[in-house]
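WARN retry 2 of 3 for item q-0093 after timeout on previous attempt; input resubmitted unchanged.
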Amino acid sequence: MTGLDDLKIAVLSEEDLATIRTLEKKLGPNIRLVAVESKSVLYALEAKMAPNEWQRVDTVYSEIKNIKAYYNELDTAKEAKGWLKGFLINNNLSPKPKKRPIRVREVVNTESE
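OK item q-0093 returned
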């Protein structure tokens, strides 16, 4: 999981598509721009690194394959948090990842409104 699993392709006008094509030409042949619909709310799964310092779980636990940091629904984020806590207690990775406090934080996208 990359955090991009739930994206929805945006519906664009011909003018918007022309603008994107112009930008792609400016950026060069190796760059492609993708338009997706933004969500008004996402839920981030974060691990506590120090007092008042939280980081996304996919960066903290990068040794865990397919870990995802962002979710569209609160229930899904809570399920993922429970799974991760259980995994950190009962895993057989070497070296064992450090078990840290984990939270679900609501991230409001102010640009989508």
